[in-house]
Amino acid sequence: MKWCCLTFKSRYEAAGERDFAVLIERGSDAQPRFIFQHRAVDRGSEDSVHSEELISLVSEVRIHYCPWCGHDLKKTYGKYADSLSRPALRILIPGAGD
What we know:
alpha+beta, three-stranded antiparallel beta sheet
């Protein structure tokens, strides 16, 4: 795999950890999707967080270009979306679509 930049590669590898990460998947329309995710705690540690206030432990936003080097993600990784997909790392909200 030829990555667009070292930072994108490292953020792809960091998925599931407490930090910013990049996820790649294929949507229900068969188009590749690129998600920028932030986790406040490592995956699997969510139950250890106790708060009186509602807090977001994971945030996600869809992206189209690499935040660090500007490459078009669909052109760069679209044909690899199936092999790069790790659906267990996504946070799915019922009824929100994909």
